[in-house]
Specification:
single chain, about 130 residues, alpha+beta, seven-stranded antiparallel sheet, 3 helices, globular
Length: about 130
């Protein structure tokens, strides 16, 4: 398996940092799944991180704990918001990696928000 992300690619939680218009970094701890050399995360469609990525796709990633305390090296990348088909794929990847807990969270979210309420994000590591 190709992993250009190092430890971030196999971490249980990653700190995804996006940037406001003024350049201020904003970090969010998320689940992430590595597949085909890209990292995939899943989040609420109308979240601020999605809005920031649409404006500026540059992100950084770092391994972290559940509360977002970072550890390890920072990896720069480029994020892309996925369409419905891509988002469905990310949901499957999350359920596979996080087993029963992932399944419960993804299915619970779909029941609560509907299929359009969450979106997948694909991140490519900077060379």
């Amino acid at each position: 398996m190709d992993n250009p992300f190092g430890a971030v690619g196999t971490a249980n939680y990653v700190l995804l940092t996006t940037f406001r218009k003024d350049g201020t970094p904003v970090g969010s701890p998320l689940w992430a799944a590595l597949d085909d050399g890209r990292l995939y995360v899943w989040t609420v469609t109308d979240s601020w991180k999605v809005k920031r990525i649409r404006r500026n796709p540059a992100v950084t990633l770092q391994s972290c704990n559940v509360s977002g305390t970072p550890r390890g090296e920072v990896v720069k990348g480029t994020a892309r918001i996925l369409d419905d088909t891509g988002s469905d794929r990310v949901r499957r990847l999350i359920k596979r990696k996080y087993t029963i807990q992932g399944w419960l969270v993804v299915v619970g979210s779909q029941l609560r928000r509907g299929r359009q309420g969450t979106v997948g994000i694909e991140i490519t590591a900077e060379a």
